[in-house]
Amino acid sequence: MSFKVTILGCGSATPTAQRNPTAQVVELHGRFFLIDCAEGTQMQLRRNKINFQHIDHVFISHLHGDHFFGLIGFISSMHLWGRIKPLHIYANEKLREIIELQLNSSDSLLRYDINWHTLNYDGKHKLYDDKTVEVFSFPLNHRIPTCGFLIQEKQKERNLIHSKIIQYDIPIDQINAIKQGSDLLLEDGTPVPNDEITTAPPSTRCYAFCSDTIYDENVVKYIKDATLLYHEATFMHNLLERAKETYHSTTIQAATIAQLANVQQLVIGHYSARYSDTLPLLEEARTVFANTQMAMDGRIFEI
Amino acid sequence: MSFKVTILGCGSATPTAQRNPTAQVVELHGRFFLIDCAEGTQMQLRRNKINFQHIDHVFISHLHGDHFFGLIGFISSMHLWGRIKPLHIYANEKLREIIELQLNSSDSLLRYDINWHTLNYDGKHKLYDDKTVEVFSFPLNHRIPTCGFLIQEKQKERNLIHSKIIQYDIPIDQINAIKQGSDLLLEDGTPVPNDEITTAPPSTRCYAFCSDTIYDENVVKYIKDATLLYHEATFMHNLLERAKETYHSTTIQAATIAQLANVQQLVIGHYSARYSDTLPLLEEARTVFANTQMAMDGRIFEI
After folding, report:
1. Which residues of chain B approach chain A closer than 8 Å at the C-beta?
2. A15, A237, B62, B164: which has the fewest Cβ within 10 Å?
3. Domain parsing of chain A, residue ranges
4. Which H/E stretch holds residue A265?
């Protein structure tokens, strides 16, 4: 099933001619999650042909403008285009005040509800949960309270081997338990080990989003074994001191986190506006973690 | 001397593939005035190669989002790019609270001062004044308090005719008064009429901005004889009822105001997103006021 990330903006701080500031859409089994919402996100959604009425959940990592200045326009346009279903926003509690003040100032009464969910910064917290998908927040280490996000498939059921259903005439009332890993109990009480009658489920996939953060190995435990990690790499490593001062990461640091966390693939982004060519950032990250790709506006990463 | 309007956005309500919402830069004798600042204005300034650190005065007509959602990003980027000179913003007083709340939420302390000027809605008010330029606000008739703006050259001095200076040996201490329109007084007390020794100054130019407003002839007195009038034409005239309901104008209404005000040229804009082709709006306006042009993003109108 589809699981992909569309990069709407991969720049930091201010927009440049090539890059918008941070926003991404994660599509997973027909659900659309928006992560961060910089100025211009609604235009970027249109350019990337993503119907933004499909988005029901918005996660805002922190309240630096390059991660949320587009939210009020996004909310407002959803209203003008007739949205009535609720929108869930997961963010710092101050964001609600910012949005409501602007709506009130223009006498705008939305036709849909916004359900506000306050982020915590003291560990891993589940934000969203349904039959097949979970979303968690975890703390990053930045100048102001900041969260990363994990979007992951839930553990799937084991697959019953068709020939075994026939061979053992497995009763319907045992099937759910077997799919969850129980052994089969024959009528005489004899157990048949689960792994004789099932195969392992497909492995679950996980997307981890880390922007913005100083290099901090405390994050590794939250993103361990992710299928795809997006980690900010604002600077080349020769600007390590600048990265520390501003609580950002370098290419080498992003790649080191990817390595420590044993992720399958790394995508770097959140490049400083000083880099018009970002290929050197990619090349530098690859010296530490070979399976690295670079975010570009409009680029899609399949997970 | 240069006097021109660059359209950064000519759409209404929500951005479309062709149009950003309202923002314009007026350049007059080296001064850059920004009128309205919708989401994406900072990107539009860059696309139109206008260095936005040249802008010292920003006029926000009203607090509907399609006229101000880009202001916080514009302010923030000016800071990040090292601005230290003050910025003047003329707007509804609530805008200050909106901007300051967002700056405080991200722990941002600007390196430059913002001087806030509160708009009045009860007549014509001078907002800006220097040696050669004046800017005024005047009330429009919209769903929430809204102002239009006049940017005009000051009356220039009369031109002394060089041959008359020699013929009458005009004393230096009379020159300023003569340029202001006084007669020359010869040594024996005989007056020489001003129009014998001077020619009229070049006529002054005036730009009038009217967006958003319902059709209202009360506006005519404020924009009388403008060189260029920008007037919103959100709808074709067959949607007159919709225009009334939403406190907007039709093409025919914009053109009628231009005619009543005896302006030299009309530019229409603020088109509803329903019109992907805006040529029919232009053609309809021209049936009433022939010298009409249509705003398009990136288009420049010389005044």
Report:
1. 13-17, 20, 39-40, 42-43, 46-47, 63-65, 69-70, 72-73, 76-77, 80-81, 92, 94-95, 97-98, 101-102, 105-108, 143-144
2. B164
3. 3-156+202-302, 159-199
4. strand A265-269
Q: How far is A265 from chain B (nearest CA, A)?
A: 31
State mean pLDDT over B96-122: 94
3-state secondary structure of A230: strand
**Rounded to a whole number, what is the distance in Å from the CA of A25 to chain B's nearest CA?**
19
Give the dihedral of Cα atoms A286, A287, A288, A294; nearest 10 deg. -20
Task: Find the closest chain B residue to A46 by CA distance.
Answer: B17
ipTM of the prediction greater than 0.90, yes or no: no
What is the structure's pLDDT at B266?
98
C-alpha distances out from residue A201 to A134, A287, A291, B153, B235, Å: 17, 34, 25, 76, 57
Q: What percentage of chain B exceeds 90 in pLDDT?
A: 82
Task: Give chain B positions within 8 Å (CB) of A39.
Answer: 39-40, 42-43, 70, 73
What letter does residue B111 receive in the DSSP assignment? S
Cβ-proximal residues to A104 (8 Å cutoff; 6+ apart), any chain: none
SS3 A256: helix
Q: Does the pLDDT at position B152 exceed 90?
A: yes
Q: Using 50, 70 and 90 to split pLDDT, how confident is the model at B189?
A: confident
Alpha-carbon distance A150 to nearest alpha carbon in chain B (angstroms): 24
Task: Name the amino acid, one letter, at B66.
Answer: D
Residues B274-291, mean pLDDT to the nearest whole number: 97
What's the predicted TM-score (pTM) here?
A: 0.91
C-beta separation of A24 from A35 below 8 A:
yes
* CB proximity list for B275: less than 8 A, separation 6 or greater: B236, B281
- Contact call for A77 and B14, based on CB within 8 A: yes
Q: What is the model's pLDDT at position A189?
A: 86
Q: Give me chain A's average pLDDT, please.
A: 95
pLDDT at B52 over 90: no
Residue A148 reports pLDDT greater than 90: yes
Helices (H), chain A: 41-47, 71-80, 94-105, 162-168, 172-179, 194-197, 220-223, 240-246, 251-260, 279-286
Residues of B in contact with A297 (CB under 8 A): none
Closest alpha carbon within chain A to B48: A17
Owner of token pair 């279903």: A85
Contact A149, A133 (CB under 8 A): no
* pLDDT > 70: percent of chain A: 100
Amino acid B82: pLDDT: 94
Candidate from A14, A46, A102 with C-beta closest to B81: A14
Shortest distance, CA A284 to any CA of chain B (angstroms): 26
pLDDT in tens, B54-78: 999 999 999 999 999 999 999 999 9
Partners of B152 in beta bridges: B134, B206
In this structure, which topology does domain B3-156+202-302 adopt according to CATH?
Answer: Metallo-beta-lactamase; Chain A (3.60.15)
pLDDT digits (tens, 9 = 90+) for A183-241: 998 888 889 999 999 998 888 999 999 989 999 999 999 999 999 999 999 999 999 99
Q: Which of A36, A56, A66, A113 is catalytic?
A: A66
A-chain residues near B94 (CB < 8 A): 101, 105
